[in-house]
Amino acid sequence: MVRKPKEPSGVPPRSALRPSRRGIRELVLITLFQLEFRPNRELDLSQVLISTMKGLHESEETDTSERLPELPERYVRFALELLVGVRSKIQEIDDVLQSFSHVWTISRIARLERTILRIALYELIWITDIPPAATLDEAIELTKIYCAPEATSFVNGILGNIYNHLEVLRQRGEAAI
Prior knowledge:
Layout: H1 21-35, H2 45-59, H3 73-88, H4 90-100, H5 111-126, H6 132-146, H7 149-172
């Protein structure tokens, strides 16, 4: 069962089934969060994504006989790129996270925050057509929706430090990883 997002400041939660990059990030967050509980299993990630969409669709207050909404191909590609990318680069992502979360080990960072950080880091490092500011804003918004209030400053601080470091590396012409 997927946990429904809380409603910060009276704002209704966003739907992960909405065809937008924000909706796709939310869908990928929920999917990756579920995979945190079975990290070593080999899975067909496209099937896991579809299963997550079905679960979200059925949990909404709609007629469950309704067809699952179809996402435009570009959003399906984006979702799979994030999902497969984060899973395939998880060690490199976690190494970066560990080096910037001086006090916390990766295992001590709450699963939701860790998953949000992983998605944002994957976007910052490996997806070049998304402006970094958009990636950072979306990560903070997901944190506000799904995490405890104090998590926002934690995620923002870590991502801000990583972003600044990546910018220095880019200016020098050095590789991010």
